Amino acid sequence: MKKIKKKGIVFFILFVFNYAHALEVQFSTQADREELMQDESLSLIATIEVNENYTGQPQFSYDAPDFYQLSQSSNQFLQSFFNMINGKTESGVKTNFRINTVLRPKKSGKLKISNITAVVDGKKYAQSDIIVDVTPPGQGTPPPQGYRSGLGLRGTDKTIDRRPFFIRAEISKSTVYKGEQLIVSYYLYRKAKVSNIQVTQYPVLSGFIREDLEIPVLGQRLTAETVQLNGNVYERALLARYAAYPIKEGKLKIDKMSVKAIYYSGSEQNRGAFGDDEDPFLQFFGRLTPQESTQSSDWINIEVLPLPEAPSGLSGINLVGDFEVTAAISKTELKVDEPTTFTLMIQGKGNLSSLKEPTIKWPEGLELFEAKSKTKNQSAGTSEKMIEYLLIPRKAGKYEIPQVTFSFFNPEKKLYDSKSSNKVDLNVEGVEGKISEQEKSPPLAQNSPLTKGSQNAQSISPFKINISDQFKKLIFAFFGIILLIVGVLFVFLYYKAVQRKRKEDQSTASQFLRLEAELKLTFEQIKKSSKQGPSGLLKHYQKLADHLLGATELSYSIAAKSLSRVQIKEFFAQQSKEDQAVWEEISRVLERVELLCFSGNTQQNEGPLQEELTGLVKQVTDLIRFLSTRTL
Known about the structure:
The chain folds into four domains: about 20-135, Immunoglobulin-like, CATH 2.60.40.740; about 140-305, no CATH class; about 325-430, Immunoglobulin-like (Sandwich); about 495-630, Four Helix Bundle (Hemerythrin (Met), subunit A) (Up-down Bundle), CATH 1.20.120. The protein has helices at about 1-20, 280-290, 470-530, 535-540, 540-555, 565-575, 575-600, 605-630; strands spanning about 25-30, 35, 40-50, 60-65, 65-85, 90-105, 110-120, 125, 130-135, 145-150, 160, 165-170, 175, 180-190, 195-200, 210-215, 225-230, 230-245, 250-255, 260-265, 290-295, 300-305, 320-330, 335, 340-350, 365-375, 385-395, 395-400, 405-410, 415-420, 425-430. Helix 3 (about 470-530) runs antiparallel to helix 8. The chain is α+β, with helices and mostly antiparallel strands.
């Protein structure tokens, strides 16, 4: 019987433990565009957030019989969190999954993506259906400049793009209400290899309130996905994404983004893009030589509708979107004059930055000491606003914090809506104005924000700390020793780094001196070889080239002797203008050396040939001396 009781207790403990550690999952989906043409594609973005370090892999599925799936990619990252709800502190790690599915419509009309589900740890989570308005090919946003129509694999509706890359602005919808969220994404579409991407003009979005959602181009870490546009397959990478909220009605424009980049036109699609179809020589070297181009997205027209007239009692509402609101409190059981934090969390799709703090009628005896708020925007276009109120009960008793109601215009339903928070109960014990010695906290500093709002601020603190002076001295002494050790270690490491750098500089200087000595020896050999005729002089050309490339290696830390001329040129293209000018001078000398070696100049008289070689020696010597001063 005792064994059965023990097993029952163990089972109960395990059950409670598992229940307390049950996974909390937040699942959301969004299409990056609500309107598109039949020959374009859209991204279905699914976000799954798990409240712990989840090592499993969620299963994402949907039904879209009217779409082709072009590609699907996913990534995972961890996020730490800290919350205090109803007196309980929660902290840990959240696991976030982001699944991006690229879809292309099979036909035009209002198409549905349904049965959107995610399975996490055996439990299914669902999202509402997504409706996408698909127009026939050619009836949406006009294609970027530089396109040419023509017959292709898919017939006359295919458009041939003659550029290696272009920039395209894409919007979530073309008609919005004043204040409604509009997602604007700027993409780079490419068929050729593109590098060194630099934005020369960012969009201003005049007439909108602009919020930055994600700008991958700043970090130069672009993620490519395969998409289809106008019958052509491209690799597309997001450059920047903004949330735009129109502040006036009528016709507005989404302005352009301009990008400068280097590309290699080595693919079949780019042949003939610059009129070189029939020249195989130019085709060959065009694939090896990097080229630079600047491309800009087109302007897009947006129609902004006025908000409909609000019902009576809801006048002056300018919040547009769809939101949910919840309320929580840090402690529900407290004593008189003990502070607690009441939190309102508003989440949804819209401009929460413009939302003002609501007016709350607090119960009598509950004093509002301080209020603060912060807004956080998510990359998918959703946002959240957290408003915290520091409350101090001045009387004992039971309090009820009433519901807080927010009203807004819902553009999807095309009507005004309201959402209310839950009620919160609070129980306060003790006698007004009397606090036991054990509950009194140390006096706050004179400049503390709490001392500015209440004469009783010195007795307001949820923490009771009693540290002796002797213990404080030990703590200060311990940290002082740690800081001293860290300081000594830093000085030692800095000294070693300086010594290492000095040795490297001395080694480099000695190698340059050796190069100059070898050049002098080469010059002496040239004088002796003049007696052997032109064939005796030409053998020293390669030595000059080796000396010059060796100095380049020392000065720029690249393996110049083992790299091709094109690769060295690519390296210097990313350096300063002064370094590029140095390379041009080095390149001219090397080209002159190669020309004399392979152009048949062995039939020249030895006098001019020796004079030419002597001049080259002087040029190489001057360049090596310049490179040595640049390094040192």
